[in-house]
Amino acid sequence: MIYGIGVDIAAVERFQRFLDTGKTALIERLFTPAERSRCEIRKDAASCLAARFAAKEAFLKALGTGLRDGLSWHDMEVTNDELGKPELQLSGKAAVMFEANNLARVLLSLSHDGGNAVAMVVLESK
User: Fold this and answer.
1) Residues near 99 by Cβ (< 8 Å), separated by ≥ 6?
2) Average pLDDT over residues 87-92
3) 20 to 30 A from 29, CA-CA: which of 38, 54, 55, 104?
4) Closest alpha carbon to 53 in 124, 108, 125
C-alpha cells in the first residue's frame, strides 16, 4: 500500500553556482561524503548534485515531515545499485522515522532535462 508520494525539481544552474563560487560548506551540509565523491568525478557534477538534492526533498514530502525533529540531510543518501539504478539509503533519524511509520520500501526515480533535475519518491507501507 502506498504511504506517500513526493516529487521535487531542482535547477541545475543553482548547484553549478555553488560549485563555481566554492560554497563547499553548503555542499558538505547537504550531501554525504560518498555523494560528493560520486558527483565530483562526473563532468555533469551540478546535475548529479541537483538530482540528489531533489531526491532528498521528494523523500521528505512523501514522508510528510519536512526537515525537522533532528532529521539531517546526511540521514538520506542517494546511492546506485550495480546496474546504476538510484536508491535512497536511510540512516539516523530518517531510518527511525521510516520504521516508526511502519514503512517497507522506498522507490526512487531521477531524471534530468532542460537545466532541471527531478526526483520522485514513493513510500510503501508494510
Assistant:
1) none
2) 98
3) 104
4) 108
Q: What is the pLDDT of residues 33-79, one digit of tens each?
A: 999 999 999 999 999 999 999 999 999 999 998 888 889 999 999 99
Q: 2-125 maps to which CATH number? A: 3.90.470.20
Residues 114, 81, 37: CA angle, nearest 5 degrees:
65
The pLDDT tens digits for 97-116 are 999 999 999 999 999 999 99
Quote the DSSP letter at residue 74. Answer: G
Task: Using only the alpha carbons of the chain, give its radius of gyration.
Answer: 14
Domain boundaries, the chain: 2-125
Q: Which of 61, 74, 85, 93 is catalytic?
A: 61
DSSP 82: T
Is residue 43 annotated as a catalytic residue, yes or no?
A: no
State yes or no: is 112 an active-site residue. yes
